[in-house]
Amino acid sequence: MFNDTKRDEPLSSSLQQNIHTIAEVTGNSSDVVIRSFQRADGSDLSIVYINGLSDEAVINENVLKPIMNGTGLNVPLEKDASESFAAIKEKIITVGAITTVSDIGGLISALYDGNAVILAEGWEKAISVGCSKWEQRGVEEPSSQTVVRGPKEGFTENISTNVALLRRKIKSPDLWKIDRIIGRQTRTDVSVMYMKGIADEAVVQEVLLRLDRIETDSVLESGYLEELIQDKTFTPFPTMINTERPDTAAAALLEGQVAVFVDGTPFVLILPVTFFKFLLASEDYYQRFDISTFLRVLRFGAFTVSMLLPSLYIAITTFHQEMLPTTLLISLASQREGVPFPALFEALLMEITFEVLREAGIRMPRAIGPAISIVGALVLGQAAVEAGLVSAAMVIVVSFTAISNFIAPSVNIAIAARLIRFCLMFLAATLGLFGIMSGLFFLLIHMAGIRSFGVPYLTPVAPFVPGNWKDIFVRVPWPMMSTRPRLFSDNNIVRQGPNVQPAPSDREKKK
Predict the structure, then answer these.
(1) Cβ neighbours of residue 474 under 8 Å, at least 6 residues apart?
(2) Are residues 255 and 289 in the same domain?
(3) How many CB atoms lie within 10 A of CB 193?
(4) pLDDT, tens digit, for every residue of 268-280?
């Protein structure tokens, strides 16, 4: 096992000893290529790289050929080790990214980063040449956050590509990037990016502190870090947004938030956040303000429906029938005449069935998954009604609830609504509307106590900040959004100048 003692072991001046150590540490893996060769002056060298992670064309043309043939400045390998090391590093190799490694840990890390490592007899250090190249997915439209109007590019699994996509959006030297490596075994690259002068420095330092405290073997996805650095663990509500969209990440950074990139995943973490941010979509800022406001209000309403509708149906049909019009009450009573189960059991049966169909549609092959889920929902719902297991009204309630749940832009907040829905259903079946209201009061108290890196979760409602309401439930026109919302930082709050609406032209005035 490659332990910390072995990692800190310095390189030997013996070339064969270093090669033996590399072979021992990597278990003589067949994809670890060790190429030994001699220069014309008889100097022994070796180049080590991992097949599939390094670009062999770059190694052959820019490393092996110049060293073996002495091309370029034709610098010979002097007998002095330090001089020969400097000559190879500074005058012969024609690759831009070159670093020096002096211990086994640094050498192994360089290899698994896709670099090629050059060793020579008499050297007590090695040259790491940046030539990483591996197969990766191209920049495509995000699959989980699609828009009608807006950019169609999304993050990929390569952290360098993701950072470049963000820098393409924000061409400013104030966009700062701080790197970390997390995971004893995976050695995952993690980058923290923020806008210097806009983001709160205390939040940035808190993010870095929490990342530095992580001790784990592996980080394979940003979800690992989300649970390890979040403020409150036992809550159904997410305290960080994950996004596949570079434009969403850029907009968040320009409002003072911080982005955490993790190599190997297209989902970037945005923090800190408030509850209302989960119901805002990037497309809200690309449409006209009146259309965006309508869609936003619709989104908030649908989120409320997805949490409350089944529990309200259970409470009213079980305890509060007097609230229903007589005609509707007679219709519901006739539908439930042959149903042997209480309303709670009906709702649980349909909700669990729908959840199973939803999960099956995701896990099944893409070609048949949607068809199976839709056909399964229609067939099972119709069959359940005809068999007298559930009423037709319950099928309508559960179906509309599920559709309302899909309208949330963030999957995390939609999942939270699904979990809360089941709790409210049990409260409605036991205490009626009083149980639902008690559950909602408890939920509000819980949300008021949540913090996302020090920011209250219900800001700007609680605490009440009236100046920030122009981009919460409604979206005012862009000329009125001259300042950034003071949700995450008080630095540099002026976003744009006084953009005056265009005046009528002279021709229009004459008319």
Answers:
(1) 293, 296, 297
(2) no
(3) 24
(4) 999 999 999 999 9
